[in-house]
């Protein structure tokens, strides 16, 4: 009788979401790595997210910023042993990163999300790159650009990198997780800027931090499926992220002049002004 060879199983999102048994996390008293996880009503994915986070580095702490959760997210995170900051009201998109960073102790700040299960092996390159001396370690995922109509968020990220004279980074930015930040980088950028990732990113590049793409995690495939926006209607998240990029460009103009630091080749415009 011929036996069928078992095919090698791929690590699918369903496999990652299989709930591990609750095993209390051990936060290191003097962590090298702080893993920051904003979460709003993420009880379904949080156990798997916490388990993967716990496998990233032996000298780490895990911080969950539960904001506006009504499904027991904060209580579940505490049961697992994570450090928990809880807010009764929703903070808004990305604001949780700031509060998690402000209480962090590590020299490496790794940012992930509570609704996206990313294997630990995909997170370690970001941590290791910061340990080696880089200030900002970015995900190389740039989003689809081969389509006839490019998504406005993808376009905004590419445009910002052109303005920053870092077109080599394509669509990489601190908007997408995972990404990591050194303690030095965090202190130079400041915590408040983390609420607006493109602004924090523009500050990091403009202030001379070592910013590198280090690893690519295809978060477009890992993202939970969101309800499609009806035809003719604007996607509120896309509008928010586009506005964040405009705020970053506005900061660049204020910081580097009305041309954002780009030269004018000696034009004598004052000679022709009436």
TrEMBL record:
Presence of keyword Cell cycle: no
Domain Glycosyltransferase 2-like: 34-138
Swiss-Prot/TrEMBL keywords: Transferase
Entry annotated with the keyword Transferase: yes
Gene Ontology molecular functions: transferase activity
InterPro entries per record: Glyco_trans_2-like (IPR001173), Glycosyltransferase_2 (IPR050256), Nucleotide-diphossugar_trans (IPR029044)
Name of the featured protein: Glycosyltransferase
Species of provenance: Paenibacillus anaericanus
């Amino acid at each position: 009788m011929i036996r069928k060879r078992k095919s090698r199983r791929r690590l699918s999102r369903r496999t990652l979401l299989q709930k591990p048994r609750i095993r209390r996390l051990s936060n290191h008293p003097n962590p090298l790595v702080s893993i920051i996880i904003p979460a709003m009503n993420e009880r379904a994915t949080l156990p798997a997210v916490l388990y993967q986070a716990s496998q990233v580095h032996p000298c780490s702490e895990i911080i969950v910023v539960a904001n506006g959760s009504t499904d027991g997210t904060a209580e579940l995170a505490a049961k697992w042993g994570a450090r928990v900051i809880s807010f009764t009201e929703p903070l808004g998109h990305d604001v949780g990163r700031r509060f998690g960073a402000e209480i962090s102790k590590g020299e490496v700040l790794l940012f992930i999300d509570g609704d996206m299960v990313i294997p630990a092996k995909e997170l370690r390159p970001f941590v290791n790159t910061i340990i080696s001396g880089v200030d900002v370690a970015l995900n190389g995922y740039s989003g689809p650009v081969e389509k006839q109509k490019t998504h406005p968020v993808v376009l905004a990220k590419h445009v910002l990198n052109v303005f920053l004279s870092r077109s080599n980074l394509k669509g990489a930015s601190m908007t997408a997780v995972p990404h990591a930040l050194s303690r030095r980088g965090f202190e130079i950028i400041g915590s408040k800027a983390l609420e607006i990732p493109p602004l924090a990113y523009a500050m990091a590049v403009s202030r001379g931090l070592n910013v590198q793409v280090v690893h690519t995690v295809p978060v477009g495939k890992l993202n939970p499926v969101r309800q499609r926006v009806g035809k003719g209607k604007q996607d509120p998240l896309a509008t928010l992220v586009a506005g964040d990029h405009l705020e970053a460009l506005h900061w660049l103009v204020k910081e580097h002049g009305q041309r954002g630091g780009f030269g004018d080749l000696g034009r004598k415009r004052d000679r022709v002004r009436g």
